[in-house]
Amino acid sequence: MSLIQSQPLELPEQTAAVHMALYSSVINASDLFQRLVARDTSLQMALLNAETIMDPFQIMVAAHRAARAEQLGQLRTHNVHSELVFDLSPNNNIREALTRFGISSGSTHVLAVRVGGSQEQFAQEIAEIVEGRQEPIEQLSKYTNMETVRKYYKVPANLKSPEDVQHSVIGSMALKGHS
Amino acid sequence: MAELIQQGAEAKVFALSFYGRDAIAKERFPKTYRHPILDKKLTARRVVQEARCLFRCQQAGIDTPTVYFIDTNLNTIYMERIEGRTVKSFLIEHSGNPALVDDLAHKIGKALAALHGINIIHGDLTTSNLFIRDSNQSLVLIDFGLSYHSSLIEDKAVDLYVLERAFLSTHPNSEVMFEKIVQVYTKKSRDGKQIFAKLEDVTVKEPCHK
């Protein structure tokens, strides 16, 4: 049974699925990072630093925005996957978004996200790409670094409960570029 | 999937699910009496302004619906749907229970002081735009469609005045409750006394406007 979680997009006239696979103990992050920097086109996915993600909803919000931008021909980055990484960030600095939310050479917990295609195909590809231990997506919150999340999203100190933090994170993403 | 739950003069509101969460989509439609290009700009600005006010409140710890997505192309805001009831329906049911009413007045006064504390004017305070969350009985401010940023005492006083009119016209014998709201508001608010004085001013002026 696959540990990949798939969820369809809820865009007008667009129901492609978003697939997510979570890995811990990743040993080839450095290699993957190099391939991303070199714009290796065989990596048709977003490779994220799992520490910055609270739950799959955060991913779906970014995926929705990225896929909507692609649909309207309004991408700010190269493709829907880099746009997804960019849309996780609360500000418009692309480079900063990629360094903060994308994997780096030292990443050990990685969340791989693919927009579109079938789950089987993604499962097959990802197995050859990421070297690490695949985990159920429900484990994601175990790897979330709340301090990092608070810092990257500038969550005000008065918001303390995990729910409030999550709402603040989602709101920051939604308001990106509008405030 | 989306169900139309409200058709207002400014917008349509749909109930729907947004990636597993109960949500509403508020779509502003074009105003045909305006020039199309101007209308597009104004509508887009209004959509963003509403979302921005909601977000500012949220960041300040004032309970408001979380914004999920702004579709500038469709002039639509997707946001959290509050599981709860309006203060209006609560008051109709519980107006005879002073303890409950007093507690609610306290919550409203405090929330409004916080709202004006970050210089946001709601613009349409009614007992239908105040919600009580089922899960924790928290007071939630909704519908920021007419809201804006202002630090003017008069704007804040008028905001309260609108609520007062809403109270007195919808809920018989609610004078005591509104007094309590203003009392708490005045205590919690930075410029409470001045705003209160202005409110009295605005109220006295009222007959002349009619």
UniProtKB/TrEMBL annotation, chain A:
Q: Which locations, inside or outside the cell, does it occupy?
A: Nucleus
Q: Which portions of this protein are annotated as coiled-coil regions?
A: none
InterPro entries for the chain: CGI121/TPRKB, CGI121/TPRKB_sf
Example GO biological process: tRNA threonylcarbamoyladenosine modification
User: Its principal location?
Assistant: nucleus
One GO CC annotation: cytosol
Which terms does the record give in the GO molecular function aspect?
Answer: kinase activity
Sorted keywords for this record are: Kinase, Nucleus, Transferase, tRNA processing
The record's family statement is: Belongs to the CGI121/TPRKB family.
Q: What's the stated role of this polypeptide?
A: Component of the EKC/KEOPS complex that is required for the formation of a threonylcarbamoyl group on adenosine at position 37 (t(6)A37) in tRNAs that read codons beginning with adenine. The complex is probably involved in the transfer of the threonylcarbamoyl moiety of threonylcarbamoyl-AMP (TC-AMP) to the N6 group of A37. CGI121 acts as an allosteric effector that regulates the t(6)A activity of the complex. The EKC/KEOPS complex also promotes both telomere uncapping and telomere elongation. The complex is required for efficient recruitment of transcriptional coactivators.
Per its record, how is this protein called by name?
EKC/KEOPS complex subunit CGI121
Source species: Dimargaris cristalligena
Q: What taxonomic ancestry is recorded?
A: Eukaryota, Fungi, Fungi incertae sedis, Zoopagomycota, Kickxellomycotina
Automatic annotation (TrEMBL), chain B:
Which positions fall inside the Protein kinase domain?
1-210
Quote the PROSITE patterns the UniProt record gives: PROTEIN_KINASE_DOM, PROTEIN_KINASE_TYR
Q: Mention one GO molecular function.
A: protein serine/threonine kinase activity
Swiss-Prot/TrEMBL keywords: ATP-binding, Kinase, Nucleotide-binding, Serine/threonine-protein kinase, Transferase, tRNA processing
Supply one GO CC term from the record: cytosol
Q: What is its EC number?
A: 2.7.11.1
Q: Which reactions are catalysed by this chain?
A: L-threonyl-[protein] + ATP = O-phospho-L-threonyl-[protein] + ADP + H(+); L-seryl-[protein] + ATP = O-phospho-L-seryl-[protein] + ADP + H(+)
InterPro entries registered for this protein in UniProt: Bud32, Kinase-like_dom_sf, Prot_kinase_dom, Tyr_kinase_AS
Q: Which GO terms describe its biological process?
A: tRNA processing; tRNA threonylcarbamoyladenosine metabolic process
Domain of life (superkingdom): Eukaryota
| UniProt feature coiled coil, ranges | none
Q: What EC class is this?
A: transferase
What the record says about family reads: Belongs to the protein kinase superfamily. BUD32 family.
Would you tell me the protein name for this molecule?
Answer: non-specific serine/threonine protein kinase
* Annotated source species: Dimargaris cristalligena
